[in-house]
Amino acid sequence: MRKAITAALLAAIAVPVATSTPAEARRNDDRRYYNTDNGVRYWRGNNGRYYCKKPNGTTGLLIGGVAGALVGRTIDGGRDKTLGTVLGAAGGALLGREVERGGSRARCR
Question: Could you tell me the residue range of the domain that residue 82 belongs to?
Fold first, then answer.
């Protein structure tokens, strides 16, 4: 049974990959980026509007979560350090995400 489920899962993943054409992938990534004086990247869409490329905060979320978990585990001096680790990871992840997303370079107007 496990082999049948694995085979069905692999087939479901392989079908969309096999049916997508390089032209479809190129159409989504065929943007020419420009940089402003403050380092913000932007591109012009097909409709004539300008769009900016801002960081989404994923890297800051991951690094902040790990650092927060380590700090929370260190601060929590109890026998079971799970609560300190979880709270530290949550706080660090939120803080790291906001640090990466925020700042003067991420503003696009």
Answer: 2-106
